[in-house]
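Structure in, sequence out. Go:
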């Protein structure tokens, strides 16, 4: 993966737009931490943010490298078993930003990255991220995934100016985090299929170049499962490069469409309801991969049983949303009323383009293939069912879509699938 080339962007793309990426520097190689002082030589008051685990992983080493230019070291404390990217943690970081702070440097993975990304954007400060795990694709993305008022939201922010990672450090991450990064990449099979579907039904913007870039990441990572689990530094480094490349793809289009679709909506459902109900849930990328398998099964069901010619009665969806999301229901309802997918009549587009829709759905791997990839990374689909139960998974399929403003196969299934 030629990251340096990707950072240069694409001018005059075939989609009619030019794509750029505001990241200045990506260093995923041996000795990357040793090179941090040179990268930070123009900063005098650096706020370093990590948590207990990431400080032990390499935060202490980063602190030692930047001792003379560190304004403050903030070690975030977990509210429960993990740090949640919510208002409390945002406030903790905000309190450490002074008028002299000139760089926020995060040491960690998903949560630390999202928090630092948001606070730096809010305070108009540059930020760097030193990755401790190849666990998700948000390092280079423009979005910051947070839990605000109990609701999973992705806010516009800015990518880091630098992404630093040593494969030897990444390879020491807990096995679930390695599985999570692999799962987040494999889940792109689902979201890329959703993107094509939205182009057909909703006439949504689509870029072949960005699609191909993201799919190339999937193809490069897919055969690496055993090597990643074996903590082979070459394979783990390649996984990290793919995760960053997907983030660059998101930066190209200015949103997460190339990397997030129905599988992410289901994973967000399990996370949000887990937080609301104080129930356990899997790491993000693991849920993404399990959920991608679920969406593959939905596509198979639609292809086998057909699509209704007219949209089905939506029923009392607000009552169901209130049952499922409790204190966060009003935000979901307000979002869907604003988006208008429930009120929209897509029946003409779906009816006239059934053959195109079928071709797109057939382009996604089937459930058995996705299950074989789950097996390769040592994730048991039965463990997913045991964790959530069939009733909760059924709720996710019908109402996970209400968390986001994006058209996916979940909407096609909900509105037009012939259930008989």
């Amino acid at each position: 993966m030629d990251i340096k080339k990707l950072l240069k962007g694409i001018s005059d793309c075939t989609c009619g737009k030019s794509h750029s990426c505001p990241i200045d520097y990506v260093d995923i190689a041996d000795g990357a931490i040793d090179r941090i002082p040179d990268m930070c030589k123009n900063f005098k008051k650096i706020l370093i943010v990590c948590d207990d685990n990431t400080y032990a992983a390499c935060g202490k080493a980063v602190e030692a490298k930047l001792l003379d230019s560190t304004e403050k070291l903030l070690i975030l404390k977990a509210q429960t078993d993990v740090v949640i990217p919510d208002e409390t943690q945002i406030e903790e970081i905000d309190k450490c930003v002074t008028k002299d702070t000139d760089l926020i440097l995060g040491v960690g993975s998903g949560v630390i990255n999202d928090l630092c990304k948001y606070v730096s954007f809010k305070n108009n400060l540059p930020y760097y991220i030193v990755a401790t795990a190849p666990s998700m694709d948000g390092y280079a993305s423009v979005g910051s995934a947070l839990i605000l008022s109990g609701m999973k939201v992705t806010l516009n922010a800015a990518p880091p100016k630098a992404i630093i990672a040593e494969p030897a450090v990444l390879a020491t991450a807990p096995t679930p985090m390695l599985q999570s990064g692999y799962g987040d990449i494999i889940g792109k099979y689902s979201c890329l299929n959703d993107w094509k579907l939205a182009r057909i039904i909703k006439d949504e913007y689509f870029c072949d170049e960005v699609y191909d870039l993201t799919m190339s990441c999937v193809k490069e990572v897919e055969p690496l499962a055993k090597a990643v689990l074996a903590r082979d530094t070459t394979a783990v480094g390649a996984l990290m490069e793919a995760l960053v490349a997907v983030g660059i793809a998101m930066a190209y289009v200015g949103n997460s469409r190339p990397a997030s679709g129905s599988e992410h909506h289901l994973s967000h459902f399990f996370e949000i309801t887990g937080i609301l109900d104080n129930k356990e849930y899997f790491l993000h990328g693991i849920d993404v991969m399990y959920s991608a398998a679920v969406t593959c099964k939905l596509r198979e069901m639609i292809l086998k049983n057909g699509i209704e010619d007219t949209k089905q009665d939506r029923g009392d969806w607000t009552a169901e949303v209130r049952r499922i999301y409790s204190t966060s229901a009003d935000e979901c309802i307000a979002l869907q009323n604003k988006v208008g997918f429930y009120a929209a009549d897509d029946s003409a587009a779906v009816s006239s383009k059934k053959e195109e829709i079928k071709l797109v759905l057939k382009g996604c791997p089937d459930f058995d293939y996705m299950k074989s990839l789950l097996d390769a990374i040592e994730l048991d689909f039965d463990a997913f069912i045991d964790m959530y139960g069939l009733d909760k998974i059924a709720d996710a399929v019908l109402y996970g879509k209400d968390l986001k403003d994006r058209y996916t196969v979940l909407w096609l299934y909900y509105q037009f699938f012939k259930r008989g």
